[in-house]
Amino acid sequence: MLDHIFLTVSDTARSIAFYERVLPVLGITARHDYDGNQGPAGHSDLKGFGAKGRMFFWLRQGTAAPGAVHVGFVADSEAIVNAAHDAALTAGATEIHPPGPQLHYDPRYYAAQVSDPDGYSLEFVFKSWQHGN
User: For 5-62+69-131, which CATH class?
Assistant: First the structure.
């Protein structure tokens, strides 16, 4: 099980603004800024997002490498996939594929995929057999 991921972005302020508009739709509502000076020498500042007492999605300033990372976010329903997709497009994402069943994986795999402002591939995923309430 993963504990956290760092995503290196080219413009931290722009990315924070984007993710602050998209992640709450998925229930990721907590925010925390970590001052890199609190860590070992050379530790970068981090801008974190989380939920349920955990910070798990972090942004750091640097050279983006969008082809290196694909992030799949859990959605609790098809409606939330649709809402996250709409929020992302409104916040400036580029559509990769619209919401719908991903039949190449499983007929119950419902998802949408976008590129964030740095080109990272984000997927909003509802797997009824795993994510349902």
Answer: alpha beta
Q: What is the residue-wise DSSP string for 41-108?
A: TTPPPEEEEEETTEEEEEEEES---GGG-EEEEE-SSHHHHHHHHHHHHHTT-EEEEEEEE-TTT-TT
Averaged over successive runs of 10 residues, the pLDDT of the chain (133 residues) comes to: 93 98 98 88 91 96 96 97 98 98 95 98 95 66
CB atoms within 10 A of CB 133: 4
Whole-number Å distance between alpha carbons of 19 and 120: 12
d(CA 96, CA 115): 7
**CA atoms of 122 and 115, how far apart (whole Å):** 6
What predicted TM-score, i.e. pTM, was given to this entire model?
0.93
Asked if 8 and 64 count as a contact pair (C-beta separation under 8 A), the reply is: yes
Contacts of residue 107, Cβ cutoff 8 Å, sequence gap at least 6: 101
Tell me how far apart the alpha carbons of residues 117 and 61 are, in angstroms, rounded to a whole number: 13
